[in-house]
From TrEMBL:
Lineage: Eukaryota, Viridiplantae, Streptophyta, Embryophyta, Tracheophyta
Protein name, entry field: Uncharacterized protein
Any Pfam family hit: MBOAT
Keyword line: Acyltransferase, Membrane, Transferase, Transmembrane, Transmembrane helix
Chain segments annotated as transmembrane: none
An annotated Gene Ontology molecular function: acyltransferase activity
Listed PANTHER family: LYSOPHOSPHOLIPID ACYLTRANSFERASE 6, PORCUPINE
A GO CC term assigned to this protein in UniProt: membrane
Membrane topology reported for the UniProt record: Multi-pass membrane protein
Gene Ontology BP, a term: triglyceride biosynthetic process
Keyword Zinc among record annotations: no
Intracellular or extracellular location(s): Membrane
Amino acid sequence: ALMVLTLKVISCSINYNDGLLKEEGLREAQKKYRLLKCPSLLEYVGYCLCCGSHFAGPVYEMKDYLEWTERKG
């Protein structure tokens, strides 16, 4: 569970960093998953502790989680 949590923290920080970069230099996956604004504390904790993938994975992207919680994806 701790390993999955570590992967979620790293992926969220990379996606947020991609959101700070100009879109023209990004690959398609980076454009798809980048975060244009920092998630709220509740969104971040919810993503990190969501039990859907805690025991065996797979790790999903923060943007997928946010779309799921907003019933968009």
